[in-house]
Amino acid sequence: MQRGKFITLEGGEGTGKSSQAARLAERLTAEGRGVVRTREPGGSPGAEAIRGLVVSGDRDAWSARTELLLMYAARSDHLERVIRPALERGDWVICDRFADSSRAYQGVGGGVAPAFIEMLDAAIVGDDQPDLTLVFDLPVETGLARAMGRGAAETRFESKGMAFHQRLRDGFLAIAAMHPERCAVIDATGSVDKVSDRIWATVRARLT
Predict the structure, then answer these.
(1) 119: Cα separation from own chain's centroid
(2) How far apart are the first and last CA of the chain?
(3) What residues make up the domain containing 125?
(4) Tens digits of per-residue pLDDT, 143-184?
C-alpha cells in the first residue's frame, strides 16, 4: 500500500489553522482520500495529558527547555500511536502544529539552541518529516486579537507578550525560507474562503 501524505499547519496564535485544517480535511475526503486530522501538543491520549501541562497556567510555569522536552515527549507518543499508523495504512494526516512550532516557540521565541532541538527531532521524528508544511502568516496584532477573543482557557502562550509573538512570526518565516522544498507560506489575511482556496491551490500543486 502506498504511504499517505503528511501535512502540517504552522503559524502564530490566531492565524486560523484549526478551521482551515477542518476545511482541508473535507476537501481531501471529498476526493476519496482517507484523512486523519490531529493536533499538537496532543493528538493521542498520552500527548493530550501533556498538553494540559504546557498550554494552561502561568506563562512562566516552565522554562523553554523544559517546554521543549515536554513537547517532544508528547510528539513521540503522537507519532507512535496516531501519525505513523495512519501514514502506513495510506491515510493523509493533517496536523495542526508539529515540530516547526517547537523550533519557533521554544527555539526562536524561548532561546533554546537550534542544535539541541535538531538533536531531539532526529531522535524522535527521524524520517517522518512532513511532506508539506503550510506556514500561516498574519500580522501579530491581528492574530493575538483573534486568539484572545476566543475566550479559551488555554492562553499561556498568548500571554507571553507582543515581542515574543513577533519573534514567533519572524521565526516561522525564517523556517519557511530555509526549507522551501517542504514549506509554503500562506497569506492568512482575508476571508476564510479566500484562505481556504489559497491552501487548496498549494496542496494541489505540491502533492497531487
Answers:
(1) 19
(2) 17
(3) 6-207
(4) 878 776 665 555 666 566 788 889 999 999 999 999 999 999
In a domain, 88, yes or no: yes
> In the numeric block, which cell numbers belong to residue 17?
489553522
Residue 204: which residues within 8 A CB-CB, separation 6 or more?
none
Q: Which residue has the cell 522544498?
A: 181
> Strand 92-96 vs strand 6-11: parallel, antiparallel, or unpaired?
parallel
Phi, psi of 44 (to 5 degrees): -135, 160
The order of strands in the sheet holding 35-39 is 35-39, 92-96, 6-11, 132-137, 183-187
Q: Look at residue 48 and tell me if it is in a domain.
A: yes
Q: For the chain, how many structural domains are there in total?
A: 1
Cell, residue 88: 502506513
Query: Rounded to two decimals, what is the model's pTM?
Result: 0.92
Which amino acid is located at 140 in the chain?
V
